[in-house]
Amino acid sequence: MSDVTVELGDAHVATVEIHRPPANYFDAALIGELADAYEALDADPACRAIVLCSEGKHFCAGANLGSAESPADEPRSLYRQALRLFASATPVVAAVQGAAVGGGLGVAVSADFRVATPASRFSANFARLGFHQGFGLSVTLPALVGQQTALDLLLTGRRVPGEEALELGLCDRLAEDGEVRAAAGELAAELVLSAPLAVRSIRATLRIGLVERVEEALEREASEQDRLRATEDFREGVAASLERRTPRFQGR
To answer: Mind listing the domains of the chain with CATH numbers?
Structure first.
């Protein structure tokens, strides 16, 4: 079975689902499949909104740093695919169960809307790993929550539970545990009630320059990730994460 499936219902809402449970770690191939799905749905007049969801416990835990072939080692190929998500024309509602962490937060924030539960948690944990943020979060996170809150989240790497995420603007609606996908579908159904040409036109206007800004940020992010990957702090951060302990950073 593909790692990404697409189901288009008769109510003009498509469900795009990631199938790498329980953590739904990504790589360039997975993000490329997501982009392929978005582009195909953009070209289908029967689709007017997308619900992005994941199988398993967590929405997406980003890159699997414990893997011998971590996508953190190939950020540019990953980000070429990621840029295609931002260029899509159809509004996307992400159903965020469990964790959206690191690059997984980037995937969630690439959507137009996020629906979560009180048990959901969002974390830009890059600095806790001795690393630099990626997936365009340098642009998308400040636009969503403001510069100061983005600075807080990126420098501390702290976990944000669902209720605080709603207050900060990281998510748009809260659902009961187990109901997040249904609630995301309800929000997508509201979008479908509006005129589809107007929806795409308004969305495109509000996103003028976004792809270009994200592309510039991705290049900077990839360069900084290349530099920091060679540091002792990054190796310590990854080791501490895998060993579930507090890292001992040395600034080198």
So the answer is: 1-176+196-252 (3.90.226.10)
